[in-house]
């Protein structure tokens, strides 16, 4: 998970293309979601279903609900970022940061 996060961070920090930066952010989000899901694992745990008794070890449903909420938020942020990138491309003609930050003459 740490390697995946590092790859995403590297893409965000080194890329000049806005679309590649969004892809890097999505890679970072995926690694965080994986870390959260694995933190909720219990050895020998089962899903919290009715009829199994209270003595059985259960996997935490809170972590899974948190990840599902995070996925929805990440999808919304990605959609908004993509719309903004399309808008920048139409207005400025480029999605490369170095071209966007050049002073106009």
From TrEMBL:
The chain crosses the membrane at residues 23-42, 62-86. It is found in: Cell membrane. It is a multi-pass membrane protein. InterPro entries: CPA3_antiporter_subunitC, NUOK/Mnh_C1-like. GO terms for cellular component: plasma membrane. Its main location: membrane. Keywords: Cell membrane, Membrane, Transmembrane, Transmembrane helix. Pfam families: Oxidored_q2. Belongs to the CPA3 antiporters (TC 2.A.63) subunit C family. This is Cation:proton antiporter subunit C. It comes from Wenzhouxiangella limi. The lineage of its organism: Bacteria, Pseudomonadati, Pseudomonadota, Gammaproteobacteria, Chromatiales.
């Amino acid at each position: 998970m740490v390697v995946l996060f590092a790859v995403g961070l590297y893409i965000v920090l080194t890329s000049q293309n806005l679309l590649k930066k969004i892809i890097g952010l999505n890679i970072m989000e995926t690694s965080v979601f994986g870390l959260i899901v694995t933190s909720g694992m219990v050895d020998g745990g089962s899903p919290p279903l009715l009829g199994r008794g209270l003595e059985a070890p259960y996997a935490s449903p809170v972590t899974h609900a948190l990840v599902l909420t995070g996925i929805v938020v990440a999808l919304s942020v990605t959609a908004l970022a993509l719309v903004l990138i399309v808008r920048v491309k139409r207005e400025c003609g480029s999605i490369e940061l170095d071209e966007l930050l050049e002073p106009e003459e």
